[in-house]
Design a protein that fits this description.
heterodimer; A: 178 residues; alpha/beta; Rossmann fold; 3-stranded parallel β-sheet; two-stranded antiparallel sheet; 5 strands; B: 360 residues; D-Maltodextrin-Binding Protein, domain 2; 4 strands; 65% helix
């Protein structure tokens, strides 16, 4: 079972004193089937950091590396635990792109998040948990339609843009890191 | 257990070890510094023997006797005027031995007795001093009486049993550095791995937890052997320490001793949740042993009761076995008593480690 899943844990750290490509090398050797470190780093846009240490990375880079480490065995099922928590809007958009890429390759991705727009953007199916119990599970749009059918309506009309769009418009869409 | 993951993890953790400057410092540099300091200063070497002479004869024979004594390098000679004054000096610890040459000293028909007062506390010096004095007096007897010798002692120098302090110290420092490495490196490394969630992350991979533990233990056993080799090599090359015993026996001891202290390290890391807790526990175990297990000075200098207790410390077993094998050339088998002591400690700390160990 563990050989076909990949897990990215929230706030997990990696061996100190080893650089990124060495860490991926070690993790890869723990699985019978593996992807090359260079390829993994390229997938998460960290190819120029292969000799860097995990601790020296920015928050977004650490999250992306964490995902590279979860992908090391080319898993069929990928578990991501709040992959965008604490990231700036650009890094978050970038992470969404990565996740959608893995999704397009036919992998099943199980993602937990507190950001509903993230769930709406990324997920085919959403389960809402409350006090450890699943209280609803469906496609995001079906869940929204369900709510509207109950007569819910927002007391302001959503504009075609929000503050995040303003931020991205002002600061650019590119990743903001060295 | 698939061997490849275990081997990979061992390789990786060795690599991490040698990149960790702090670990390198404690493991190799500090024991070397201790050895160099003590080796160069040669603390505690058999001191010169403070000999007081009270010459009541002041004749040709006594003058000759005193001049022979003065020529002997091992003696630091003071000439005293009276027995009372020299006795006082002895009581103040300024003399190891006082010899009183009686007024009738010289070739005579009846034996002349020379009284020797000695400091009961400094046993080694007074013993060696008395042996030398007896030897000289025997020589004089033979010369004066013209008797021929019936037995001749033919001394042959053997370098393995000289009394230099560095010879005493090196095996102790080797044992101590194995203890420090085992206790501290395991305790700290595992507490860190736990705290940073690295253990949790590894549990999400298909490796068996035991493979990971095995790799950690194996890495440290390799380091303890390396430590032993390097420290002994420096001692042999730079301090003329003679490795009398079988090198393989020494390495076996390094492995067994490593096993004991690595298990203790695991027991600490199993219990402690942060480095702030692990460090004092490791210190509470290590520090008393450093001073009570005969690493820096012989335990014979301790009060009897303390000796009896310290007999059972794991570092005592390791240091003594190391010393007997390295310096005296004892066989591993002859150290069965110390080995049995280590085995009991190994079993005990292994059990405690298993009971206390937690992955998170």
């Amino acid at each position: 079972m563990r050989e076909i899943i990949g897990i990215q844990l929230q706030s997990s750290s990696f061996f100190e004193k080893l650089n990124l490509s060495e860490i991926l090398e070690v993790f890869g050797d723990l699985y019978p089937r593996r992807l090359a470190p260079a390829e993994l780093l390229r997938r998460v846009q960290l190819e120029d950091k292969s000799k860097a240490q995990f601790k020296s990375l920015s928050g977004g880079q650490q999250q992306r590396f964490s995902i590279a480490a979860a992908m090391v065995n080319d898993p069929l099922v990928l578990f991501l635990d709040e992959p965008t928590t604490g990231l700036d809007p650009q890094a978050r958009r970038n992470m969404w792109g990565l996740i959608q890429g893995f999704q397009a390759e036919g992998r099943t991705i199980l993602l937990t998040t507190h950001y509903m727009e993230e769930a709406e953007e990324l997920c085919d199916r959403v389960a809402i948990m409350d006090r450890g119990r699943i209280v609803a599970m469906d496609r995001p749009q079906a869940l929204v339609d369900n709510l509207l059918r109950k007569g819910f309506h927002k007391n302001y009309v959503a504009k075609l843009a929000n503050l995040e769009d303003v931020f991205l418009d002002l600061t650019g869409h590119g990743l903001r890191e060295g | 257990m698939r061997t490849k993951p275990t081997w990979t993890l061992t390789k990786a953790s060795l690599k991490m070890w040698f990149r960790d400057r702090q670990a390198m410092f404690w493991t190799f540099f500090l024991p070397l510094v201790i050895m160099v300091i003590f080796g160069v200063l040669n603390f505690g070497a058999l001191g010169r023997i403070d000999l007081g002479i009270v010459d009541l004869a002041e004749n040709e024979a006594s003058q000759g006797f005193v001049s022979i004594l003065q020529a002997i390098n091992a003696f630091d000679i003071s000439r005293g005027n009276s027995e009372a004054a020299e006795r006082l000096a002895l009581e103040d610890g300024e003399r190891d031995l006082v010899i009183i040459i009686p007024a009738d000293f010289g070739p005579a028909l009846t034996p002349v007795s020379l009284r020797v007062l000695y400091d009961a506390a400094s046993s080694r010096e007074t013993l060696v001093g008395q042996v030398i004095l007896r030897q000289i007096l025997d020589e004089m007897t033979f010369t004066f009486t013209g008797a021929s010798r019936l037995f001749i002692l033919d001394p042959e120098p053997v370098t393995s049993r000289n009394l230099r302090f560095i010879d005493f110290l090196v095996p102790g420092v080797v044992a101590m550095s194995i203890m420090q490495m085992g206790l501290f490196s395991v305790a700290f490394a595992f507490v860190q791995l736990k705290k940073q969630g690295i253990l949790r992350r590894l549990l999400a991979t298909p490796i068996r937890p035991t493979s990971f533990l095995f790799a950690q233990v194996f890495t440290r056993l390799v380091v303890s052997v390396l430590q032993t080799v390097i420290l002994i090599a420096v001692a042999v090359l730079f301090f003329d320490v003679h490795l009398a015993g079988n090198p393989l026996a020494v390495l076996m001891l390094a492995l067994i001793g490593g096993g004991v202290f690595i298990s203790m390290g695991f027991a600490i890391s199993g219990w402690a949740k942060t480095e702030e807790v692990a460090a004092p526990i490791a210190n509470v175990i290590a520090l008393p042993m450093m001073f009570l297990s005969g690493v820096f000075f012989p335990r014979e200098a301790m009060p009897q009761a303390l000796q009896a207790i310290t007999d059972f410390l794991p570092l005592t077993y390791l240091a003594e076995a190391m010393r007997n094998v390295i310096i005296d050339g004892a066989s591993l088998w002859s150290q069965w008593g110390n080995l049995a002591g280590l085995a009991v400690w190994l079993a005990f700390s292994f059990l405690v480690a298993v009971l206390l160990f937690r992955w998170e």
